[in-house]
Design brief:
The protein is of the alpha/beta class and 439 residues long. It is 40% helix and 15% strand. It has a single domain, classed as Alpha-Beta Barrel (TIM Barrel). A 9-stranded parallel beta sheet has the order 13-10-7-5-4-3-2-1-14. Strands 6-8-9 form a 3-stranded mixed beta sheet, covered by helices on one side. InterPro entries: GH, Glyco_hydro_1. Keywords: Glycosidase, Hydrolase. Pfam families: Glyco_hydro_1 (PF00232).
Length: 439
């Protein structure tokens, strides 16, 4: 029922043969770095015991590519042995492992020498890495995710997260479409491998942000749909193995069609996912302005400190949209609220987090009542870790970790108020927070 990524939690930056990774490029200069994380490399047993106490049944983690294949070409047994121990402990504590193969942890050398996923060489090395991990851990790990928030490549220009920089003379849109195609081809190859292991399931994973038109003006609605097409193209490849007609024609019309090798589309068509998984944090409002879309604040919603709208019903809308169109099991693998916690008397009174999670879980329940086949809900994250930009001030966990951006302190773990609250939610299968609102 929970999720933590390797680079934001493990630490042990210079241990076990690990090399630097492209996620290091994402750290803000005014925050911290990913060198120490929350030291889960050494403390995972302690953390798993706390998760078991809360009642977790499922746990999503990522393998750090730069730990198991530091130079991008050769495997590191010490790194792989760490994940053997990690997975075995996870299972011993009663949690089913769900493994993400790429959460922005590409070995830095593949960025520096080959320009990341823009290069077909890196695509092939990723496939080699993924196949080795599936062979190594597939007897224990049955649910696999290839790329975290896969559509982020074209939604918000995650170029450094994919180890790539737009070459001179290439348009940004064509560049992002090339990254999209290379990664979707790699995803299909990984899907092919997952389906060779007993009971193996492939989960296509994306960031889902419902877009609402700012008004009933048709042009506003068209702008919202055009933006959602960037998400739908990934869903169609996941489920149908082909690009949507709208997006394919858009790339042809605008001369942004990526280079494809002869069998790419065939491989994508033949290897589709078993489930769809998503992260959900917020929704957006857009309006038509001078032939393009403009994002707006939603006057009906509150926002977090970091400017993200708080829209529980948007999660229900997302689940219904996905399931009604694609008819595959759906799993929420990320959802949570980042806040600046106030640690006092060995705990945090995080009522704001409790309210956020409560409202979102209630909406998942309503989506299920409305016919959605939702197989799980994972919180981001069960324990405080560094944010995607290495900021320890933005905390999501139900367990407080005693460190900040400037001082590692002792990294001791403390239960927040939300710990006991979520423990009861799990033990009652959500009945403790059933909504009395029929709508």
């Amino acid at each position: 029922m929970e999720l933590i990524t390797a680079h934001q939690s493990e630490g042990a930056y210079q241990l076990g043969g690990k090399a630097s990774a492209v996620c290091d490029l994402l750290a803000r200069a005014d925050a911290s770095d990913f060198h120490d994380g929350i030291d889960s490399y050494h403390r995972y047993e302690e953390d798993f015991a706390l998760f078991e106490e809360m009642g977790f049944q499922c746990y999503r983690f990522s393998i750090d590519w730069s730990r198991v294949m530091p130079d991008g070409f050769h495997f590191n047994e010490e790194g792989m042995a760490f994940y053997d121990r990690f997975i075995d402990s996870l299972i011993a504590h009663g949690m089913e492992p769900v493994c993400s193969l790429y959460h922005f942890e590409m070995p830095m050398i593949l960025h520096q020498k080959y320009n990341g996923f823009y290069s077909r060489i890196v695509v092939e090395q990723f496939i080699k890495y993924a196949y080795k991990m599936i062979d190594r851990y597939g007897d224990r790990v049955k649910k696999w995710i290839s790329f975290n928030e896969h559509n982020g490549i074209i939604l918000d220009g995650h170029k450094l997260a994919y180890g790539a920089i737009c070459p001179e003379g290439v348009s940004e849109e064509l560049f992002f479409h090339q990254l999209m195609h290379h990664s979707l081809y790699a995803h299909a190859r990984v899907t092919e491998k997952v389906h060779t292991i007993e009971d193996g399931l492939m989960l296509g994973m994306l960031l889902y942000i419902p877009h609402y038109g700012a008004s009933c003006r048709p042009l506003d609605e068209l702008m919202a749909r055009n933006h959602m097409a960037k998400t739908n193209v990934f869903l169609d490849v996941f489920v149908h193995g082909e690009y949507t007609p709208y997006f394919l024609n858009k790339m042809k019309r605008e001369h942004t069609m990526p280079i494809m090798e002869e069998n790419d589309l065939k491989v994508m068509k033949e290897n589709t996912v078993d489930w769809i998984s998503l992260s959900y944090y917020n929704s957006d409002v857009v309006q038509y302005t001078h032939h393009c879309y403009q994002a707006m604040n939603n006057p009906y919603l509150e926002t977090s400190k970091w400017g993200w709208s708080i829209d529980p019903i948007g999660l229900r809308i997302a689940l219904r949209d996905i399931y009604e169109k694609y008819r595959l099991p759906v799993m929420v693998v990320e959802n949570g609220l980042g806040v600046e916690d106030h640690f006092e008397n060995d705990t945090v009174i995080d009522d704001e987090r409790i309210a956020y999670l409560c409202q979102h879980i209630q909406q998942v329940g309503k989506a299920i009542d409305e016919g959605v086949d939702c197989r799980g809900y994972l919180v981001w994250g069960p324990i405080d870790i560094l944010s995607s930009q290495a900021d320890m001030n933005k905390r999501y966990g139900m367990i407080y970790v005693n460190r900040d951006n400037d001082d590692l302190k002792d990294m001791k773990r403390y239960k927040k108020k939300s710990f006991e609250w979520f423990k009861e939610v799990i033990s009652t299968n959500g009945k403790s927070i059933e909504s009395d609102n029929d709508f």
